[in-house]
Every structure is written in structure tokens, then in C-alpha cells.
Amino acid sequence: MKALVKEKAEPGLWLRDVPEPAVGAGDVLIKVARTGICGTDLHIRAWDGWASRSITAPLVVGHEFVGEVVELGAGVTDVAIGDRVSGEGHLVCGKCRNCLAGRRHLCRATVGLGVGRDGAFAEYVALPASNVWVHRVPVDLDVAAIFDPFGNAVHTALSFPLVGEDVLVTGAGPIGLMAAAVARHAGARNVVVTDVSEERLDLARKIGASLALNVSERQIVDGQRELGLREGFDVGLEMSGRPEALRDMIANMTHGGKIAMLGLPAEEFPVDWVRIVTSMITLKGIYGREMFETWYAMSVLLEGGLDLAPVITGRYDHRDHEAAFADAASGRGGKVILDWTS
């Protein structure tokens, strides 16, 4: 089969012929239809410091996908051949304290699809049936391909009550955009999105942001005045990983405000802990999705009319992966999709 492979410990990805994955007991084999390009994939392609420490070549990369089940391993009963499925890309041990307590998203032994084992940028991918999400209602293939990052957005956005609240989203990358859309759909009063890319801020306007603010030109406090906010934001969703974004968010929260952080900083940095303590601000780290409560919420949100179409801005045949990755790395658009059906 064809697959995108990190073949060597150097920058680049290569489209190669590799063996189809074996299907063991409890596994399913999935014929991949579409995949989404993630920031993690960009790191692996660039072979930066994180990738060189975390990846062992050769490796089939990719973890955002949708496809059709074509083979079942022994003992699989809840998934059927022909099912349209996406996959939870965090494979957990099932034996640690958190797994046994039903908190699988907190497993300390998590292995990432396309990071710690061969992934989904391929014509076929094998996955434990316990990691498969069956789409029981119709869903657009492009949207189904990005259920993994959509789950990050939903997990982050729904960490705190949103109805009637004023929400600040720092970082208008694809996950930040989806989180803003979720916050608006879930009943937030105002949703302010910040970034320095006018192209991405335009996308934020399309998904319903109350205000899309270019922080290279204006300050968050200016946005507060424009919207008539007197006490700051109730909920913050930090999606950029930028030190200045978190500092600005903390400075613009109301007393008792709550911040969910998904953005991964490149290194440690200081924040105003006095403000956090005296304003009684809650900080919550987010990683991945709650299995499978977040997945249920994703499907229900889409059934309820949440529209993610504006977030998907690039579609490419898998053979045009170089152009697709360049588009994804440009920082100007939303999600980029690879088609594996041709």
C-alpha cells in the first residue's frame, strides 16, 4: 500500500510502498478515505528538536482520519465491516489506575498513533476496536477526518460552563477556530478570537466570532471596550502556546475567571502568579480528548447544527502531499485535508 513515511532521521516525508498493517485480535483494519494534517505532523516533517527526540524512523505518520472498516480481528463485536469510522489516536494501557477508573485520557502509558506506532497517512490503518468511533449518523468525510483535533477543541471549550459567558480565545489556528465555534454554539454571549494573521481572523469571523482581534495592531482591552465588557472575560481558551498570549489573557480575566490551556509552549516562561492568586483564576491543562465522552459531544454538536466547513480550507490528493504540507505550514489557513481514495 502507499503511505507517507518518515523514512530517515532528517527533514521530509516520503510516499512509499509499505506492507499493509497486520490485524490482530481485537483490532480492525480500516481503508482510509481522508486524513487531516496536524501540527504534530508538521513537526515530524520538519524534524525539529521534539521530533528528533520522539520519533523512531521509519514510521508511517498521521493520526487524523476517516475511513471504512474492511476487516475485523478476532473478538471484535461492536464494529462491523462497512462502518464509517474515525479513530481515537491515543492508545492507552487499560491497566493503570486512571484507565481502570475510566479516566483513559489520563493514562501515563499513552502511545500516539503516527508518533509511537504506524499511523493513518496510508491507504490502510489498523487500530484496536476500542479506539474506533463509529459514525452512526451521516457526517461529511472532511469533517469526520478531523474528529481528532475537533475533539481537542471540544474538550477545551467545554471544560467550563459557557452559557451567557464572555469567552476569549487566543490563537486562531484550526483548533482555536473550532473551539470558538463550539463556544458560540454552546451559548457564550461574546466570543473574542485573537491572532496576528488576518487570513485566520477572517475565518474566525466566518465561524461566528463576536470580534476577531489582530493583537499586532490592537490590545485585548480595546476589544473589551468595543463590546462593553466591564469586568473582563469569564472563560479563556489558550490555543496558541505563546507566552504573550497567556499573559494578556490572565491580565484580561474577571475575578474568578477560568482558563483552559491547550496550546503547547516551546519552552518555560513566567506568568503573573500574583494576579492568578489574588483574582482567584483557575488554570486547567488540556491534552487530547476524554474517551469517549468528548467524541459523543462532538457528534451531538454536529447533529445540532454546528458548522465546521469554514475551518477546512485546503483539500489535496495524497500524491500532492508536498503542496498540502506547505499550505498547512503557512499559518494562513485552516485545516488541510489529504484524499486517499484515488
Automatic annotation (TrEMBL):
<dbReference type="InterPro" id="IPR004627">
    <property type="entry name" value="L-Threonine_3-DHase"/>
</dbReference>
<feature type="binding site">
    <location>
        <position position="63"/>
    </location>
    <ligand>
        <name>Zn(2+) 1</name>
    </ligand>
</feature>
<dbReference type="GO" id="GO:0019518">
    <property type="term" value="P:L-threonine catabolic process to glycine"/>
</dbReference>
<feature type="binding site">
    <location>
        <position position="175"/>
    </location>
    <ligand>
        <name>NAD(+)</name>
    </ligand>
</feature>
<dbReference type="Pfam" id="PF00107">
    <property type="entry name" value="ADH_zinc_N"/>
</dbReference>
<feature type="binding site">
    <location>
        <position position="64"/>
    </location>
    <ligand>
        <name>Zn(2+) 1</name>
    </ligand>
</feature>
<keyword id="KW-0520">NAD</keyword>
<dbReference type="Pfam" id="PF08240">
    <property type="entry name" value="ADH_N"/>
</dbReference>
<dbReference type="GO" id="GO:0005737">
    <property type="term" value="C:cytoplasm"/>
</dbReference>
<keyword id="KW-0963">Cytoplasm</keyword>
<feature type="binding site">
    <location>
        <position position="107"/>
    </location>
    <ligand>
        <name>Zn(2+) 2</name>
    </ligand>
</feature>
<feature type="site" description="Important for catalytic activity for the proton relay mechanism but does not participate directly in the coordination of zinc atom">
    <location>
        <position position="148"/>
    </location>
</feature>
<dbReference type="GO" id="GO:0008270">
    <property type="term" value="F:zinc ion binding"/>
</dbReference>
<feature type="binding site">
    <location>
        <position position="99"/>
    </location>
    <ligand>
        <name>Zn(2+) 2</name>
    </ligand>
</feature>
<feature type="binding site">
    <location>
        <position position="38"/>
    </location>
    <ligand>
        <name>Zn(2+) 1</name>
    </ligand>
</feature>
<feature type="binding site">
    <location>
        <position position="195"/>
    </location>
    <ligand>
        <name>NAD(+)</name>
    </ligand>
</feature>
<comment type="similarity">
    <text>Belongs to the zinc-containing alcohol dehydrogenase family. DOIA dehydrogenase subfamily.</text>
</comment>
<feature type="active site" description="Charge relay system">
    <location>
        <position position="40"/>
    </location>
</feature>
<feature type="binding site">
    <location>
        <position position="200"/>
    </location>
    <ligand>
        <name>NAD(+)</name>
    </ligand>
</feature>
<keyword id="KW-0479">Metal-binding</keyword>
<protein>
    <recommendedName>
        <fullName>L-threonine 3-dehydrogenase</fullName>
        <ecNumber>1.1.1.103</ecNumber>
    </recommendedName>
</protein>
<dbReference type="InterPro" id="IPR013149">
    <property type="entry name" value="ADH-like_C"/>
</dbReference>
<dbReference type="InterPro" id="IPR011032">
    <property type="entry name" value="GroES-like_sf"/>
</dbReference>
<comment type="subunit">
    <text>Homotetramer.</text>
</comment>
<dbReference type="InterPro" id="IPR050129">
    <property type="entry name" value="Zn_alcohol_dh"/>
</dbReference>
<dbReference type="GO" id="GO:0008743">
    <property type="term" value="F:L-threonine 3-dehydrogenase activity"/>
</dbReference>
<comment type="pathway">
    <text>Metabolic intermediate biosynthesis; 2-deoxystreptamine biosynthesis; 2-deoxystreptamine from D-glucose 6-phosphate: step 3/4.</text>
</comment>
<comment type="function">
    <text>Catalyzes the oxidation of 2-deoxy-scyllo-inosamine (DOIA) with NAD(+) or NADP(+), forming 3-amino-2,3-dideoxy-scyllo-inosose (amino-DOI).</text>
</comment>
<feature type="binding site">
    <location>
        <position position="96"/>
    </location>
    <ligand>
        <name>Zn(2+) 2</name>
    </ligand>
</feature>
<feature type="binding site">
    <location>
        <begin position="262"/>
        <end position="264"/>
    </location>
    <ligand>
        <name>NAD(+)</name>
    </ligand>
</feature>
<feature type="binding site">
    <location>
        <position position="93"/>
    </location>
    <ligand>
        <name>Zn(2+) 2</name>
    </ligand>
</feature>
<keyword id="KW-0560">Oxidoreductase</keyword>
<feature type="domain" description="Alcohol dehydrogenase-like N-terminal">
    <location>
        <begin position="24"/>
        <end position="133"/>
    </location>
</feature>
<dbReference type="InterPro" id="IPR002328">
    <property type="entry name" value="ADH_Zn_CS"/>
</dbReference>
<dbReference type="InterPro" id="IPR036291">
    <property type="entry name" value="NAD(P)-bd_dom_sf"/>
</dbReference>
<comment type="function">
    <text>Catalyzes the NAD(+)-dependent oxidation of L-threonine to 2-amino-3-ketobutyrate.</text>
</comment>
<feature type="domain" description="Alcohol dehydrogenase-like C-terminal">
    <location>
        <begin position="174"/>
        <end position="300"/>
    </location>
</feature>
<keyword id="KW-0862">Zinc</keyword>
<dbReference type="InterPro" id="IPR013154">
    <property type="entry name" value="ADH-like_N"/>
</dbReference>
<feature type="active site" description="Charge relay system">
    <location>
        <position position="43"/>
    </location>
</feature>
<comment type="pathway">
    <text>Amino-acid degradation; L-threonine degradation via oxydo-reductase pathway; glycine from L-threonine: step 1/2.</text>
</comment>
<feature type="binding site">
    <location>
        <begin position="286"/>
        <end position="287"/>
    </location>
    <ligand>
        <name>NAD(+)</name>
    </ligand>
</feature>
